[in-house]
Amino acid sequence: MNSLKKILGFCWIALGLYIGYDRIVDSLHKIASPQLDDRIFGWVVLLVLTPIIVAGLVLFGYYSLKGEYDEQTN
């Protein structure tokens, strides 16, 4: 079970990096839009939501790889 948690930790890190890339590209397209609503939404996603989501996924994966969630046996 502990090895599965470490494998999933790698998956969380990879997912966080992919989502970060995808959100940045999508936000840049929205910022370049002529609609004011799209530009505001793009800036909010780029500056607020993307760092929170990426940092959460990468930290969760890092701690899982490090073994913070391993079961303790006595």
Properties at a glance:
74 residues; mainly alpha; 2 helices; 82% helix; rod-shaped; DUF6814; transmembrane; transmembrane helix
Question: From the helix content, strand content and strand pairing, which structural class follows?
Answer: mainly alpha
What's the SSE pattern? HH
**In total, how many domains does the architecture comprise?**
1
- Total count of strands: 0
Cα-atom radius of gyration? 17 Å
Strand content: under 5%
Q: Whole-Å distance between the termini? A: 16 Å
Dominant shape? rod-shaped
Major beta sheet summary: none
Number of helices: 2
Helical amount? over 70%
Transmembrane segments: 7-25, 40-65
InterPro entries: DUF6814
Keywords: Membrane, Transmembrane, Transmembrane helix
Brief rundown of the structure:
The protein has 74 residues and is mostly helical. 82% of the residues lie in helices and 0% in strands. It has one domain.
What does this 3D model show about the protein?
The chain is mainly α. The chain has one domain (1-66). Helices cover 82% and strands 0% of the residues. The chain has 2 helices and no strands. Helix 1 (2-31) runs antiparallel to helix 2. InterPro entries: DUF6814. Keywords: Membrane, Transmembrane, Transmembrane helix. The chain crosses the membrane at residues 7-25, 40-65. It holds the Pfam family DUF6814.
